[in-house]
Known about the structure:
Layout: H1 23-45, H2 47-63, H3 73-87, H4 90-106, H5 114-130, H6 133-143, H7 149-156, H8 160-186
Helix pairs in contact: 1-2, 1-3, 1-4, 2-3, 3-7, 4-5, 5-8, 6-8, 7-8
Amino acid sequence: MRLDARGRSARGPAAPLAAAGSAGWFDELYGRYFARVYAYAVTRVGGTLAEEVASETFAVAWRRRDVVPDVPLAWLIGVARNVIREQYRDALRQDLIAAELHAWAAAPPVAGDVAEVVVDRDVLLRGLAALPEGDREVLMLLGWHGLSPGEAAGVLGCSRPAFAMRVHRARRRLDRHIEDASHDRDGTSGGDADDAED
Length: 198
């Protein structure tokens, strides 16, 4: 059976894991979701610490196996977020993620018109790196990790309307960073007069 990114079959609801709490259940949970939790951790703390965060997340899942939901991705990401918050200082996280995003921006693209893709990728990744951590996390939960707005709101511990407002503001800020970067690249001047309204 083929599963989508959230562990659901293409034809119906989430494919069930093995008997909850068993070693087989944990092996399947780990196999199905480790890469997604690791990817989330990379976007928050960089590649250097991501494996440690992901491993601790699954240790928590094993200890709290009685409360892991049937479709656990949002729950696991919420746990990873808590692990990061508890174990790593804000300044360290900011430095690591900015370095990781800048490294990704410098990496060559895989396919397509090389010059255009490099410029677009560079502008987007630099825009993401320039965002405050909260804005970057909101956008990454939706666009990178594929959570629904409801799941992402649950991860952040806010209501769906509050999350929608955060997404709107984060997208506006990202758009401004992209526009400014495009103007810098083209040699024209960009503006940041809109920053005063936030």
